[in-house]
Amino acid sequence: MLTDVHTHLVTQRYLDYLRSQAAQPAAAASLPWLEAVTYGSDALLREMDAAGVDVSWVSFPPPGVVEESVQDALRHALELNELLVEQLDRYRDRLKPVPLLPVPHPHACEEVLAQVGPEPPAVIVYVQVSGPQLEAASFRPVLREVANLGVPLLVHPGVEPIGPILEGWGLGSALSAPVATTAAVVRLIASGTLDDVPHLEMILCHLGGVLPLVLKRLEDQVRSEAAHDIRHYLRRRIRFDSAVFDMDALRYGASVLGADRIVLGSDAPFRGEIKRAADLFREVR
Predict the structure, then answer these.
(1) What pLDDT digit, counting tens, does each position of 19-32 carry?
(2) Which of 63, 106, 220, 252 has the fewest CB atoms within 10 Å, i.e. is most exposed?
């Protein structure tokens, strides 16, 4: 069975939510490119059939929930997760909804996890550049609860630029996003968080960002508090989706991270047809 762990649904109701939050920078930044795409379950299934994909894990694309108020973030996270289940329900055997967590509000994340429906394939977080990071003590109960659910944490970049140097000309999506993903997972490792939550497993989108390219540098220079070296966690606790769309990059990532740690991720509908992603994945595996 071939599973695509990284697909997105772009619906009018999700866009309506983001429009209602247009005063929030993350919503304002995401609307121009999301409004250019409408992608529902029927279109997703057609692409899956053409690519020979049996099952897809489906989430809303970033930014997810953007409110600064904890109560508003919780309310809208629950509503969006319910909406995703509702819109995929007709195809529940093939399209699996991935609930989102309202980062950076750890208590709201705990409440969402308490209300997650039966057997989600994963839960997704969008990496935030500002605010508390995932290794913060306040997020430790959230990570433990994800581990207790027995599902992976799907780590996806958000839309918030790292800083002015990565703003403009599309650099936020092209460069800031993969760097943010890499930073988030290295912080989780170096802080000892993965030792403290030993059953937590993760899947990093986009082949872990820039991680394969800088792994040796990280091993040499990061002052880690973890019980093991970085590569130990990458080979045992973390998997990486294949959404890089470059065979040379994918082959290199597989050589560094291990081909057995790579799972199919298409990032549909944003990076071309699912068949293209599936063909590249089959070749590297």
Answers:
(1) 999 999 889 889 99
(2) 220
Cα 12 to Cα 3: distance, rounded to the nearest angstrom: 26
Amino acid at 169: W
Which CATH number characterizes residue 85's domain? 3.20.20.140
Cis peptide before 178 (omega within 30 of 0): no
**In angstroms, what CA-CA distances link 73 with 37, 66, 100, 103, 264?**
25, 7, 11, 9, 30
User: In this predicted structure, what is the pLDDT of residue 129?
Assistant: 82
For the entire predicted model, the pTM comes to 0.95
User: Which strands form 202-204's sheet, in the order they lie side by side?
Assistant: 123-127, 153-157, 202-204, 238-241, 262-263
Q: Which residues contact 153 (CB under 8 A, 6 or more apart)?
A: 122, 123, 124, 125, 143, 146, 200, 201, 202, 203
* Structure tokens given for 229: 């070296």
In the chain, the number of structural domains is 1
One-letter amino acid of 98: V
Give the Cα separation of 58 and 55 in Å (integer): 10
Pair 241, 263: CB distance under 8 Å: yes
Tell me the helix, strand and coil percentages in the chain, rounded to 5.
50, 15, 35
Task: Give how far Cα 66 sits from Cα of 18, 77, 213, 235, Å.
Answer: 8, 9, 31, 33
Nearest-angstrom CA–CA distance, 127 and 63: 9
Domain that holds residue 68: 3-284
Residue ranges with strand state E in the chain: 3-8, 55-59, 95-97, 123-127, 153-157, 202-204, 238-241, 262-263
